[in-house]
Amino acid sequence: EARVPTSDTVGAPHRLRVTRLAFTGKKAGLLTDDIDFDQEFSSGLWALTSQRNDAGKTSILEIIMWCLRGHPKKLQDDVRAWLHNVRLEGTVDDDPFIVEFDVTEGIPTGSLTCGTDVRPFASDAAFADTLSQFMMERLGFDTFQLWVEGQGVATHRWPSYSTVLYLPREAEGAVIGDMAGNGVAQRLVQLFVGIRWARTYSAC
Predict the structure, then answer these.
(1) Parallel, antiparallel, or unpaired for β 95-104 and 107-114?
(2) 112: alpha, beta or left? (left if phi > 0; alpha if psi -120 to 50)
């Protein structure tokens, strides 16, 4: 009756990889410059480095997260306004997918394509909904609910799961999840690691 799973089921492992990121735009402000970034990511460990600060390392990670979440996590407003076109290529369990969109006055319009499955979007809300449905389906995740003080019961979907993919800078209040101390981190880590009874524990 409470929708708590009563069987000990461990989800099948899935693999999500980013294989290429490309974006164009025009930097504005005191120093204007064309933006033309295109990088393929082969197997192995990759690092983003530069000899100075404010070179765009964090922006690259944030753009990747925007493509994977459908909603930017901490992408700066000015960087978002500079972008003209963004394309991310990746695989889910070896099935290729592409997220590509144009940015007009900060609003994304494009599509997510995986084989013959094409899902268009033309707003922030539609982009987030498209990525959430796709990732939840392909990675086998279920929504889960947690009590949040001052808000009541909150339903968590792909945006919450996706926080495990990217640990923010030390200035952030929470390493995993969007809020510290609300119990999301423990549940997410248990699900990603594949601990037994994790889904039952998350539902309680």
Answers:
(1) antiparallel
(2) beta
All residues at 6 or more sequence positions from 19 whose CB lies less than 8 Å from its CB, including other chains? 40, 41, 42, 89, 90, 91, 96
Encode burial over 82-100: b for 16+ CB neighbours within 10 A, e otherwise. Answer: bbeebbbbbebeeeebbbb
Q: Is the dihedral of CA 17, 161, 69, 29 positive or negative?
A: negative
CA angle 114, 156, 125 (to 5 degrees): 55
Per-residue pLDDT tens over the stretch 124-179: 999 999 999 999 999 888 777 776 667 777 777 888 888 888 776 655 666 565 55
Q: Of 142, 167, 146, 147, nearest to 157 (Cα)?
A: 142
